[in-house]
Batch of 2 targets.
Target 1
Amino acid sequence: MVPYRGGRLTAEPVADADVSAALERARSGDEDAFRLLYQAVQPAIHRYLWVLVGQDADDVASETWLQVARDLTTFSGDADGFRGWAATIARNRALDHVRWQRRRPVAEAPSEWFPERPAPDDTAGAAIEAMTTEAALALIATLPRDQAEAVMLRAVLGLDAPAAAKVLGKRPGAVRTAAYRGLRTLADRLGGQV
Amino acid sequence: MSKHEGRRLDRHTAERLLRGAPVDATDALAGLLAAAAAPPRDGELGGEPVAVAAFSEAVQRAPVPRPRSPGRPAKLLVVKALAAATAIFAVGGIATAAVTGHLPIPGGGGPSPVAPASSHSAIPTPVPPGSSRAPGETRAEQQPSPSPSLPGLCHAYTAGNKSEHGKALENPAFTALITAAGGKDKVDGYCASLLKDEPSAKGSDGSKNDGAKPDHSPKGHDATRTHPPHPTH
């Protein structure tokens, strides 16, 4: 089991300092620096999107990075800020994606759009047994959407509560509560399997 | 596995878990979060060539601060319609709408009040068409951009899973590509010829001869889907 630390992708760590340096270089057009940004952030973005839109995460992630590539010159901030910025773009693209799929009026509340996944009886069991990334994400995706998003933004994207709140357009306290409730539900489901 | 019977996760422990701080006695939950944040898997970085190509394309357009976007035609259509309807107030009204990002373009505002992702819609400076798409502005518009970055779209298309191509073409991002190719079933051949003529695998503004620079050539837009995940600089 890969030790969980730092709240973000752990094994191919790209240090925040490296990300910040890459941001500087990428803003001046350095392709390799942009490549590093992609490698540092894309896995977490992709997983966040998977929780939001399932198998369409590939498409939405592509759209996200096209926009990141295009708008990077407008971004200013550090590594944490970049994660939050990219997550915001990803979330907006996911909203667009769902909007496009369902062809609903734009004004509808987006919070209703990401359906919670049904929780198959064996989801928690699969997460325990193999604890694969897929199983873990599948279990997180069964949470109410606000909880799932809060958990993903904090535990996988590595955002703190205020940064996650900014992505979600909520107050930090609401995000803390949502993440806490999400973890508690996950713990109960995992514990219930023992 | 962890035993959670008899006690509930408290907020302090939850916060530590979310921050990745060491916690004891919540093995299963910590393990689940670790798995969710595990190292990149095969395929997760597969979009890198497309993303890098898009970045190169954007850089090529520097020092223009706003990379070319097909969002402009859609916005212009709206602007023109507004201008026709409200000729007297058009200038001031549209300028205001453009500045505030409140043009009635679906998706232009984004769901988050603080969303920097939608900031591009607030930039009044007209941007020329060319890059693949402005997702925040054009999702609902099905008309193709008159001058999309067809090579970029082809890269995005060919970089995807072959078996998913049919599905991918249902994405409105590829509307312009389908139109240019003359039909969904012709996209494969169209992209093959387009990309063949463009060894640098990059183009801007839909022109395959525009600004190709060998030193920026991507490391393969089709065959190479993954890269060493741990570059050092």
Target 2
Amino acid sequence: MSRRVVRKFTNVAALALSGVATAIGLFFLGAILWTLLYNGLAGLSVTLFTAMTPPPGSSGGLLNAIYGSVVMTVIGIAIGGPVGMLAGTYLAEYGRTARISAVIRFVNDVLLSAPSIIIGLFVYELLVVRMGHFSAIAGAVALAIIAMPVIVRTTEDMLNLVPQGMKDASTAMGAYQWRTILSVIYPAARSGVVTGLLLAVARISGETAPLLFTALNNQFWSSNLSAPMANLPVVIFQFALSPYPNWQQLAWSGALIITVSILVLSITARLVVSSLPGGRR
Amino acid sequence: MNTVAAIDPRHAAGQRLRERVFRSATLAAALLVLLLLGGVAASLLVGAWPALAHFKLAFLTREIWNPVTDQFGALAPVYGTLVTSFLALLLAIPVSFGIAIFLTELAPVWLKRPVGVAVELLAAVPSIIYGIWGLFVLAPILQRHVQPWLIEVLGPLPLIGRLFQGPPYGIGVLTASFVLAIMVIPFIAAVMRDVFETVPDVLKESGYGLGATTWEVIWQVVVPYARTGMIGGIMLGLGRALGETMAVTFVIGNAHRIGSSLLAPGTTISAAIANEFAEAVGDLYTSSLIGLGALLFLITFSVIAAARFMLMRLERRALSSV
């Protein structure tokens, strides 16, 4: 065989393999979604959203778990959101070139990919041990700590997209920097920052590991923030590993609910970003 | 702003005060990020101290894990964490590389975006979903079709044969690695794609101009240029695999032992913590589990820090070359 044929063949083979690799990746996404739909839809009914988690063998729903997940996610974002946005503001505006900002960016990136179970242990030491019992508020704080790095990062990126000319114009009008940030930069970057919040919600609403030893779980309805609270991920974890068919069915339905909400959130966030002027992807 | 600001000194003082307050608030929030990392490290050390003081270095070197006699060693979970992550990367790197190549060099424009988004959605699926899927779908398939074949074909071989012996449990180290691989593929692929896109077109065009094939351009121009970033992306995936909890907990079998076979159940640091923490009775047991957490923190922190450092240098180079 001539050298040219070998080179051509290698080229075609390598490129075909890269297509195969992509097909493998897409196959697993499809397989996971299909399994979720197949098993989850079977249990989808009104009682899923109106009844509490049942004891083994009797029928029930996921109302208390859905409620708990929503409550803890909302509190988590309510804590992590403002703090993350302020920190992102510092990195993008006041401390853009400060030496400490480089350190903070680096540490924030590390936190962004830190294992969530470690955050759970940290909150356990910080709150659960002090309070003496598991609680919903501890779970919410754990989620806030996981959400914060996401929000810091996206806020900084989005504020950096605001044209320098707009900032200069405001400064030239005699505005102090805080006024420029609140009245010019934030409104200009609003949809981008909201996207960051959406991504953070998507990130924390499926988190299981940090809730295992902070919020724990609750078989019953509870709206007491200083008591253990049911939540979808931990219910899925416990029910899926149980030997009872009705619990396993609820786990699948819960998994479907979580995944669909997260995918909708992520896609929405992407659509918002791509409609931004200067937005990437 | 109105002209009052320039005239009224009280108004100007109010403005300056608000400026100081707002600036301090943003600085405090930014410093909180540093405080958090410090707090995590400190609290893990404090929590792990009783176990570390009791077992000393033996905590790191012993395989035993017995809550009844209060004897704890971290060797089995550390081994499990390292082995599953290593295997996961072995499976994930070629696939991720292929996806990144496909997305940057091969795919027609109309296909680029949907496929890219699909891969990113795979990254957004929460890990517990991978876990439940791995347990109910993947493990039975591996048990019935893949593992018997591995045992039959690879089992009798010298050296690597030991890795594929014993009964096909379905759940175990190999299955956990497989699920981990699927989880980290989108992360590694996304970073690699971004890195490949930083390769200047001029370089690639020079390659084509010399008569190179697409593959030769990729292998001899793109890859050498993007090497640092690729390694950074791989290490980011490694950090993810090391700390991954739920996906592994479902399928690893939670057995505190170091088996030579990849088909046998094992455990990882995060799976041990997730399985046992809420039920741990006794200070030494809890403290040993937190000790495992501290080890995990140390391992992942070094890997992630190294990865971020590499990617940061790359970003700076990309900025300066623009």
